[in-house]
TrEMBL record:
The name this protein goes by in its record: Methyltransferase type 11 domain-containing protein
InterPro entries, per database record: SAM-dependent_MTases_sf, Thiol_S-MT
A Pfam family assignment: Methyltransf_23
Cross-referenced Gene3D superfamilies: Vaccinia Virus protein VP39
Segment forming the signal sequence: none
Transmembrane segments: 15-34
Cited CDD domains: AdoMet_MTases
UniProt source species: Endocarpon pusillum (strain Z07020 / HMAS-L-300199)
This protein's UniProt keywords: Membrane, Transmembrane, Transmembrane helix
Amino acid sequence: MPSFKEYSLTLAEPLLLMSMILAYTLLSQPLLLLKAPSSFRSKWFERMYVYLGPQLASSPLQIDYIESVMSQAHGLVLELGPGNGDQTFHLKANKIEKVYGAEPNEHFHASLVAKAKEIGLGDKYLPMKAGAEPQSLLPALQDAGLLPGTMTRLPEEGVFDSIVTIKSMCSVPQAQLPETMEVIRALLKPGGQFLFFEHLQSDASFITQCYVWIFNLFLWPALIGGCRLDGKLDKVIAGMSGWKTRNMENIREYQGHEVFRYMQGVCTKA
Ligand SMILES: C[S@@+](CC[C@H](N)C(=O)[O-])C[C@H]1O[C@@H](n2cnc3c(N)ncnc32)[C@H](O)[C@@H]1O
């Protein structure tokens, strides 16, 4: 049973993050809504993430786990939701043929390309304006020439050696997650790996679940680019067939009451 202090600290975590975001917006971007009303949401998230992304990416509580997952990416790679490219430095350029980044927010694309160059990937990082959901991802892969223009089903031999995602699958509408993961597995070559580090639903504590439910109603997704605190990636993967191995584990000595349950995973396609 967590102490009162432990509970208070975990419940304060999203509040603190949101206060930082609101303060940052009010102080540095007060006129953004007036200046860019049509693209306000994506532009605002991009500006905010330029500030927040590097801080989250350098968190000593997560950096080693993300390194251990991302550094395994090799060959032809698909990265889902790479954002600003704050995690790109974990990729090992000498193991990589090319990376396609499915990032729906176009405002991040220039920075993604620049960060890939910094780590020696040259022109091998190609951003695509797409989400991870099949209806968005598959046309982008067709446009990139990785899938045939007309097809009735995905190629049996797959396409990618590695598909990697860091804290992005929480932004995929959770009702579409099973279908999204089926396509992601199909896009891997046999023996290819799905590599992830994500925050997932923490369902051990009733108090935390109620708290998360309130945050998920509108506050959190609206402020954090569609992110939800009740991600179910682990449950979806556990219910799927077609994996040779599914190594998924909680990090940070998860005790059950935390709002953010982080998990790292390496799943190999059969
Ligand atoms: C919390 S940020 C993480 C960015 C980056 N992976 C990192 O760790 O620094 C979430 C990212 O997911 C992207 N995203 C939003 N909806 C998405 C979707 N449906 N599919 C894939 N990515 C999405 C956002 O644009 C954003 O760049």
